Amino acid sequence: MLWLYLGKGDGTFAPRVRIGGGWNAYPHLVGIGDGTGDGRADLLAMDAGGGTYSYAGTGDYRKPFKSRVATNLTNGYTWFRLMNVF
Question: pLDDT of 10-48, one tens digit each?
């Protein structure tokens, strides 16, 4: 399950909003900021088989991400670098 915590602009958060279930299919899930260049935060995910997917942000808290799109981040080194940014 994945939860969204909306900031209220005063350093506090509104009650969490459930984004949906099934996210546990991804042993690796990382927010990458604006990966698509549209000004909205995006996610990258890797499944247990090594498949990678991007979820573009929508800017709408009721449906914050578009449907997944397969990516070509199957290179382990590339994914390792993404996971170790922080």
Answer: 999 999 989 888 999 998 888 888 888 999 999 999 888
Dist CA 48 CA 25 (whole Å): 7
pLDDT, residue 67, reads 94
3-state SS of the chain is CEEECCECCCCCECCCEEEECCHHHCCEEEEEECCCCCCCCEEEEECCCCCEEEECECCCCCCCECCCEECCCCCHHHHHHHHCCC
Chain centroid to CA 64: 10
Start-to-end C-alpha separation, the chain: 23
